[in-house]
Amino acid sequence: MITQAFTLPQRTLMGPGPSDVPPSVLAAMGQSLVGHLDPSFVAMMEEIKKMLRQVFLTENEMTFPISGTGSAGMEFCFTNLIEPGDEVVIGINGVFGTRMADVAARCGAEVVKVEVEWGHIIEPAQIAEALNGRSPKLVAIVHAETSTGALTPLGDISKLAHDAGALFLVDSVTSLGGCPVRVDDWGVDVIYSGTQKCLSCPPGLAPVSLSPRAMEAIAGRKTAVQSWYLDVNLLANYWGDGARVYHHTAPITMNYALHESLRLILDEGLENCWSRHETNHFRLKNGLAEIGLGIASQEGHQLWQLNAVTVPEGTDESGVRKALLNDHGIEIGPGLGPLAGKVWRIGLMGYSSSEENVDRVLAALKTLL
What we know:
The chain is α/β, with parallel strands linked by helices. Helix content is 40%, strand content 15%. A hairpin with an 8-residue loop joins strand 13 (333-334) and strand 14 (343-347). Helix 1 runs antiparallel to helix 9 (252-268), helix 2 packs across helix 9 (252-268) and helix 9 (252-268) crosses helix 10.
């Protein structure tokens, strides 16, 4: 029989997520519960929606957090937009493009895959080739591929999608809050993210935003949305601007945390937040070069917040990670898929993105290598 409370070890989270959480966010989660239809909670919901619009840089009315992690946000977007037989074009340059294709197929879509080498970006010309002679329902891209550290520019791909009559869907799980995400300027119709990366909030919510064009497409469906829980038509009655209609019991403390996380980002200033991530990325990159390490993702398109560091020949990849965790209290991530054993994924996301953390991990790697 377990009679003692669980005691956590001290860790600095510098992997692909989750990131460290500011003390005030943890304190927010410790507040007393109110009901999910309590007037005070409803007022907080409105503030969360307003702050999310500011962070997404959008005027979209349907901007709110899904109750679930970033993968729930992914499923929400595809489930609401896709009907069986719809054609979709999906860019795949890592794990999460692969996951999008899987989710779309499970919704009954005819998936056209645009696949490139992991660590490289999806080029507009590759999307244009896939769209030639096609009129898909949507084009989907992972903005910041967490498995490889590559950042795909979106503006030209968005134009190609719209010129083909398609909606443009974006995964911003790792990019939101850590680098520019401009939903309205880039013509993004549907976007999802997660709380546990650059928003520095525990995992459990998935911010999403849908344009009026996307909502019109959903309203024109011939079949019901496959998921009751993720049906935006039902969720809009709870998160919309009218009378609040019970849909599900929202994760109340997670919304407390998201409110505080968004408040901290906007208090810092969104552009200042981006700049901090950029500065710490280059501090890490330059320090890695001094000890003979490089970044594996495509030059000129490397994420500030997630660094895929090439493992030197003959190095015990997992042994170094274990030593960082056990001897230095620093968590970093392994490579996935074709990059397994070949890279370490070092995250500088949100509250974890600091000069102190950069210097700590560099000193530890220098010692271990």
